[in-house]
C-alpha cells in the first residue's frame, strides 16, 4: 500500500492499481462514516455494509490485476482494466449514495416489492441512484471477468517468453 501511495500514478502501467487503491480506501471510509449515522432499520445499514464490502472487493480486484503478471501470466488489457476500475467505483458510489439518501429519509430495508413514498420530490430519486449505480457496478463486474479470464485461460508464459520480454 505504501509503495503505491508513495509513487503515485506516475507509472502508466499501474494507474488502474493506484485508482483502485484510492477508491478502495475512499469506499471503506464512506462505509465507516455511514455506519456512524445508523439509528433505525433503514437502507442506511445497507449503504454502510456495501461501502465496507465493496472496498474489500475492489482491493481484491486490484490484487488480481497486480499478481497475474507477477505469477507469469500476461498483463491484462490496461485500457479495459482502467475502465473497469473507474466504472465499478462510480457505480458503487452511486449505489451507496442512493441507499444512504433513501435511508436518511426513512426508506426501509428488506421490503422488496412494496411502494415506499419517502417524500423525496426530486428529478432523481434515491431509488434511481441505487438502480443505475447497481447496473453500472454489475456491468463492470462482468467486465472484470472479461478482462481477467482470457489471461487466466491462456495460461502462464513459458520460460522463453518471460526471458524475451
Write a brief caption for the model.
This protein is mostly helical.
Structure commentary:
The chain is mainly α. It has a single domain (12-110, 124-158), classed as Four Helix Bundle (Hemerythrin (Met), subunit A) (Up-down Bundle). Helix content is 71%, strand content 0%. It contains 6 helices and no strands. It has helices at 2-7, 15-35, 43-70, 78-104, 126-154, 159-164. The chain starts with a helix and ends with a helix.
Write the layout of secondary structure elements.
Blueprint: H1 2-7, H2 15-35, H3 43-70, H4 78-104, H5 126-154, H6 159-164
Helix pairs in contact: 2-3, 2-4, 3-4, 3-5, 4-5
Order of helices and strands: HHHHHH
Total helical segments:
6
- Distance N terminus to C terminus? 27 Å
Number of strands: 0
- Report the major sheet: none
Helix content, binned percent: over 70%
Give the rounded overall mean pLDDT: 85
So, CATH architecture? Up-down Bundle
Features:
165 residues, mainly alpha, Four Helix Bundle (Hemerythrin (Met), subunit A), 6 helices
Amino acid at each position: 500500500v505504501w509503495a503505491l501511495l508513495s509513487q503515485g500514478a506516475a507509472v502508466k502501467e499501474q494507474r488502474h492499481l493506484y485508482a483502485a487503491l484510492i477508491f478502495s480506501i475512499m469506499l471503506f471510509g464512506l462505509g465507516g462514516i455511514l455506519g456512524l449515522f445508523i439509528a433505525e432499520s433503514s437502507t442506511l445499514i445497507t449503504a454502510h455494509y456495501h461501502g465496507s464490502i465493496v472496498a474489500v472487493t475492489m482491493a481484491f480486484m486490484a490484487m488480481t490485476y497486480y499478481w497475474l503478471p507477477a505469477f507469469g501470466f500476461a498483463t491484462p488489457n490496461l485500457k479495459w482494466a482502467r475502465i473497469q476500475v473507474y466504472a465499478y467505483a462510480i457505480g458503487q458510489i452511486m449505489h451507496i449514495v442512493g441507499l444512504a439518501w433513501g435511508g436518511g429519509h426513512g426508506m426501509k430495508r428488506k421490503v422488496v416489492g412494496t411502494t415506499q413514498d419517502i417524500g423525496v420530490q426530486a428529478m432523481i430519486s434515491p431509488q434511481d441512484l441505487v438502480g443505475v449505480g447497481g447496473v453500472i457496478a454489475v456491468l463492470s463486474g462482468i467486465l472484470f471477468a472479461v478482462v481477467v479470464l482470457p489471461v487466466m485461460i491462456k495460461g502462464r508464459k513459458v520460460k522463453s517468453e518471460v526471458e524475451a520480454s
